[in-house]
Amino acid sequence: MASSHDDERPHLVASDLDGTLLRSDGSVSARTGEVWSALAGAGVETVVVTARPPRWLHHLSDIVGGTRDAHSVAICGNGAFVYDVADRVVLESHGFEPGVARGLVGDLLREFPNAGAAVETDRGMYRTRAYPDQHVGEPGHDTAVGDVTDCELAELPDDLVVGKILIRDEAWSDDAFVADVTQCLGERGVLAYSGAGGLAEISAPGVTKAVRLEAWCLERGIGREAVWAFGDMPNDLPMLDWASRGVAVANAHEDVLAAADDRCAANDEDGVAEYPARRLL
Fold first, then answer.
1. Which domains occur in the chain, in start order?
2. Which segments does the entry list as coiled coil (predicted)?
3. What is the pLDDT of residue 148?
C-alpha cells in the first residue's frame, strides 16, 4: 500500500460505491457530489470501482458519467467491465465463456441445492427464478431490472461474456457460505465478498478490481504512486493494497480497517468527500 511517494498529490482518486462513496440508503449526498466534481476542477481524476453491474449505474451519472472524458467511465462488476456511463457502452469485458459459466453454476447448485443463481453479463443479468432479489426499491434498481432475464442458466446464450457469477442462499451465514463456496470453487474463479448476506460473487481467474484499475491507470500514464483508493469490504482489499494510499471508511469490514493505510469518516458522514477535501481542495 503506502510507498515513499505516499505524500505526493494524487493524480487519481478511485472509490468503491456501496458502503463507501454512497450512503447506506444508496444515495449520493450533496456534499459528496460537490467534492467529487471539485476534484476534477483541481486536476485530480476520479473513477468509481464497484461490484455493481453496468445496468445499475445509470442513475449515478452525475458521479460516474455525464461527460465525454475519463469521468464517464466506471470500472464495474468487480473488474469484469469497463463501462462508459454517458454512452451506455461496455468498452471492455473480462470474464467466463458461457460454457464455463454454465458448468460452474451447475456444480455450485448441486452443492447448494437451495440456492439461487444469476450471472452478470455484457448484456445484462440472467437469473434463475430461485435467485432472490434483495434490491427492490433501492435507488436506480427498478429501472435496472429492465436488463434482467429470468431463465434456466443452462439456456445461457453462447455469445455473451459472463463477468460475474452470483450464488445466493439466504439460509447460510456469510462466513460459512463463503468458505464452502470457496472449497467447491477451487481455482476455477475468484470469490469476492462485498457484504451482502448469503451471497457469493465469483469472477473469472485474474479478474479483480485491482487488476482492472491498474490496467486503466496504465493506459493513462498514471502510476500506482499517484493513486488513492477508498473501500469498505474484502473485495476492495486488492485495490487498496495496489494504490499508494488505501483508505478505509470507518464503517468498513474489520479486515479492511486492519489492512488500510489510513481511515476516513463513515460513508453516512461523507468520509470519501471530506478526506480529499481537507487534503486536496
1. 12-93+208-280 (3.40.50.1000), 98-203 (3.30.1240.10)
2. none
3. 72
Q: What is the pLDDT of residue 249?
A: 98
- The rounded distance, in Å, linking the Cα atoms of 189 and 207 is 9
- In the sheet with 73-76, reading across from the earlier edge strand, the strands are 73-76, 81-84, 89-93
- pTM of the predicted model, to two decimals? 0.90
pLDDT, one tens digit per residue, over 23-74 is 999 899 999 999 998 998 898 999 999 999 998 898 888 777 545 455 689 9
Low-confidence ranges of the chain (pLDDT < 50): 2-6, 66, 68, 141-142, 145
